Structures are given as structure tokens and as C-alpha cells.
Amino acid sequence: MIGASASTGHPRPVRRKTVILALILAPGLLFTAASVWRSESLKIEATPSTSKDWDHEYLKLFGELSEKPDIGVLSNRSFDFFENIRKAIDNVEPNVRCSRYGFQSNNNSPEGHQKRKRKIYYGALIASEPWELFHIVGTETFGIFEGMVFVEANRTQNLTPRPFLRAFNNQATLIIQQLFGVPKVAVIPYINEDVNVRGLKREHDQRDEIIRGWKEMGMQPDDIGFLCDADEVFTRDFLLALQVCHIPSLEYNEERKCSPILGNKVGVRASAAVFESSPECITQSRVWFHPSAVMGHCIQGIGNDTNNNHEVRAANGIERKVGFGGDGKWEKAIATAHFPLWNGYDFRRMSPSFTPQVSLAAISRRFNPYTAFHFHNFFSTFEKLRFKYATYGHANNLAYNKTLVRLHNDLHLMNLCAKGEPDKDVESLTFRRRPGGFDAFHNPRPIYFEDPNYRKARHALIRSLVLRDEQNFVDKRH
User: SS in 3 state form for 376-431?
Assistant: First the structure.
């Protein structure tokens, strides 16, 4: 069932009522909640208890559901273990933190006055990720976001049906809220049966739902929108820099408005280190340029659309027209002074964002050059992994009939890493893994990975899954 936008005529999915849940946490008390419809604004105090038997809690909450999210491998470390690591990061002086990325702190900005700490709104598409991934990202970002919007679809990009695992599920929303320590969380179900909305078009359409969710949560033009896939995140250090540093590409200027070519670029794009299925399998010499963050002034639906209207969009209402940035050229935008505000597509596809570089001085002090992490293929079963390759992105209809080595280069790398086999002489590989694994990776490192027992258990799981998958293909041939 499809709705239509009056302004563009572009088909929109029917949006169901979204529940925003407020969670008050106290030591010894797992869940206490008040739920309201999405237009309400709620506050929380986030003080989780110091330890939990998560496996028991997930079983208790989801045990009766026929379809429920996988749990994955979870650390048994206490909240305080990770909180102490976060405090060491949080206590860095703003001038020191900002200088790492070539920024000034807002205290020393050209305007010469203290600015408020920027509020950051998070948005991601979710599907069959295990709870483990939410623990990893939540531990990194705990207490930072003003609000979070997730979108979960009833179909994959090639229109394969899938069950809702966290949408329409108040218990799942409560868990997310607890893991991230945020004021507001919304999980928006995306239901769109239009067969013409498929592939990346379907994905980008879902991202626009995130922006609508931010607006309903109260996002303002001076706030930041951080849009990503669920397995991508800025480092905690860099998120704090986004809040307090003077970053020209996140400062609105009335003269250049949201033009990425008349002065500074628009927004910030990551330089992400890629972890392939395990904390020990870090891809060498590879940089992932997602996620992205953009100021609210330049986000469609949050900023002022007066001179940034939808006429610059293609017929599908998503991509930009030629000359307005859609082909990397801007001559029509310059001539008409119509620079479109960023929609969900632009967050993912547009290149005129600023990519901060870690200073050479910081790198010389053993600070790594990355501003983000990509936790690629952190599944807990290969059934879910193969489903992804069969139905998402560039869907491969032979995903269930190929070995991992033949299915994708990333999986070939993971296969070799899991088994401890060398990869330097494997010509078919696009990338190699970083020698020394996690121990050789400098700070900032994923906070959750600082638990060596978790790293060992996660790597052991991947090794067992790889060996079992190989044996399955041996059995099929006989």
C-alpha cells in the first residue's frame, strides 16, 4: 500500500505510528518505561546497573517469539569496565582533542565566544544484525546522542520478504535505549510494496524516513545529523570533537548557504578502519568513507528549503539532477543559486563533504589515522551472512551455492584470517589484513574490543563458522 507526496508525486511508504520510549535506569533495576506516541519529548537518566546476564535477559524478553534477533558473542565485563575507558577519552582537554584533527576548539573559534555543545542525532538502517553489534556501537557512543532513529524494512533491496525483528517491538526499543544511554529512540517500520522501488533506490528511500524521524524528535538547524549503516560509527573521540570543535563545514554561512563549492564543503565524512568479522581481522591500507555527519541547516526537512527546493531533484525525488551535483558538476546550481539540502541519498552518495585528517603530530604519538570504524559482517551465523549477500546491495543469486572464498573478496580475507593462514601471496585479494591484529592497532580503538576475552571468543566463533561452512561444501560434493 503506497502513499504519495503532494510536493513531488514520488511514492512514499505508509508510515506507521512510531513509539518513542523513555527509559529510566538505576542499579538493580533493568527496565522501567513510559511509552508515548512519537510526537512527545522525553528525558531519561541513564545509570545502568554494573553487570547483567544478557543471555538470560534476551531469552526472557524474546524467548516466545518465533522470529527474534540473534544475540551473538557478548562481553561479560561490567558497565564500569567500559565506563572507565570512556571517561579517559571524555576527559581529554578540548584544545588537545580538536588539534588532533586540525580544528580549533569553540573556545578559540574566530567568533571569539563559547558556543553550545552541538547535539547529535543518530540514524541507521537495521535488518538482521545480532545484538552483539548494538553492544559494540552502544559501548562506543554511550550517552552522546540526543536521539536515535532506526528504520527496519519488511523487504530487502531485491524485494525478498523478511520479518520485523525490532520494529513493533517495545522490548527491543528498551534494550537499544539502555545500550546507548539516549533520551529518545524510535524504530520506524518501512512498509513499501511498490516493486519499482528496489535496489539502492529502496535503501535511499528508507534513509529519508530517518530524517523525518529526526524532525519529529525536535532536531534543530544547529544540530548535527549522523547517518550511517548499523555497522558504522565514528570513534568516541571524534564524536566528542564534532560536539565541541570549530569545524567550518558544520558552521552555517548565509552567503554560501549549503553550497559545497562556494567556500567550505558541507558536512564531515569518515575515514574508517574496517574490521572484517573479527576484532583480529583488520583490513590493511583500506579506508571506508562512511558514515557522514551534516549540520541541520543543510538537511532537507530540517533546514530552510526556500532556495533549496525539490526542483533540483530527479523524477524519483531522491537523486540530484545533472548540474545540481548529481554528476559531480554544479553549473546549474551556481546559475540558479539553488543548492539542494541533503537528503538520505546525499548522506551516502555525495562526495563534497569534508574528510578530516588526523594530524601527523598525533600519528607520531601512536594515534591512528582513522576517525571511524566499520564492523563489517559481524554476524553470528553464516545463514544470515549469506542471506545478506543474496538479497541486499548488489544481490548475488548464487550466494548459497558458492564457497566464501568465491562469494566475495571480503569473505575470502575473513576466511584466511579466521584460520590464521597467510594472505600476502594471494593475488585474487583486493586487500590484506593488518599484521599483528588488534594488539598492533593504535588508539583510538573500539572500546568494546578492549575486553581480550570477548576478542578471543568472537574470533573463535568466526573460525568455527568458517570451518563448518567449508565442511558443508565438502559434504555437498559427495
Answer: ECCCCCHHHHHHHHHHCCCCCCCCCCCCHHHHCHHHHHHHHHHHCCCCCCCCCCCC
